[in-house]
Design brief:
Layout (H helix, E strand, L loop, with lengths): L1 E2 L16 E2 L6 H4 L2 H13 L7 E5 L3 H11 L4 E5 L3 H6 L7 E3 L1 H11 L5 E6 L4 H10 E9 L15 H4 L3 E4 L13 H12 L8 E6 L3 H10 L6 E5 L3
Parallel strand pairs: 3-4, 3-6, 4-5, 6-7, 7-8, 9-10
Antiparallel strand pairs: 1-2
Helix pairs in contact: 2-3, 2-8, 5-6
Length: 238
């Protein structure tokens, strides 16, 4: 059994070098999340959370949830942010110090950072206002790691005065842009993702299982009922 990252379709060809063998003892259900976990892992490979730092994560989809989980391992305080009450409820497993909507994020950050702002703000929501929130709530010399993908949407930001006065750093996260002498090649990142996923009950993240032949309904679910949707699995027949 192997893991492949490829657009959803019922038949495709890939070179053997592009797939990853799923080791014995790894639940295939957990392995299905390796791609999303790999994006979250990449956030921390590009800018690791230092012990005791105050960290905020905006967006509690899969990438944001996994990024917050990894941040929790080192962060002194962790604030997770999402406008969706359902996703905030589903995020209880992460163990954040505050789980809030965007309207309450600034106050939670001030309270948990002694009014300094966060040391690291991880933006995974893809909502342009979340990036503006990050600029306004990150401490001096802090880092904003943008794992979100904004697509073709224009993102208009006000960079004055916080961005300049605090000497903030904004970094983009992309899973193919890390070059450390091939130490973190795709095989290693996949293996590390699986090691972490073994310790996560991924069933708590799955809200829908939909037969592959009914894939259009999965996309309608995401488009029309995002308020009750987290992980959607397309299942092929056995």
């Amino acid at each position: 059994m192997v893991f492949a990252q490829h657009p959803h379709q019922d038949l495709f060809n890939m070179p053997g070098s592009a797939v990853r063998r799923i080791p014995e003892g790894i639940d295939p259900l957990s392995a299905q999340f390796a791609g999303m976990f790999g994006v979250a892992l990449h956030v921390h490979l590009q800018r690791a959370v230092r012990p005791g730092e105050v960290v905020a994560v905006s967006g509690l989809g899969l990438v944001g949830s996994f990024a917050a989980y990894l941040a929790r391992l080192s962060a002194g305080k962790l604030i997770v942010i999402d406008p969706n009450p359902f996703r905030r409820e589903k995020a209880a497993w992460i163990g954040a110090d505050a789980v809030v909507g965007p309207e309450d994020a600034s106050e939670a950050i001030k309270s948990l950072s002694d009014n300094r702002g966060v040391d690291m703000f991880i933006e995974t929501s893809g909502a342009p206002p979340a990036l503006q929130m990050a600029i306004g709530n990150t401490a001096a010399l802090g880092t904003i790691a943008v794992a979100a993908w904004y697509g073709t949407r224009a993102v208009q930001l006000s960079l004055s005065p916080e961005f300049h006065l605090r000497s903030l750093k904004i970094i983009s996260i992309h899973v193919f842009n890390l070059d450390e002498g091939n130490r973190w090649n795709p095989e290693r990142k996949f293996a590390v993702s699986l090691d972490f996923l073994k310790n996560i009950d991924v069933t708590q993240l799955i809200t829908h299982r939909i037969p592959f032949g009914d894939a259009p309904s999965a996309y309608r679910q995401l488009d029309e009922h995002a308020d009750r949707t987290l992980a959607v699995l397309l299942e092929h027949g056995q």
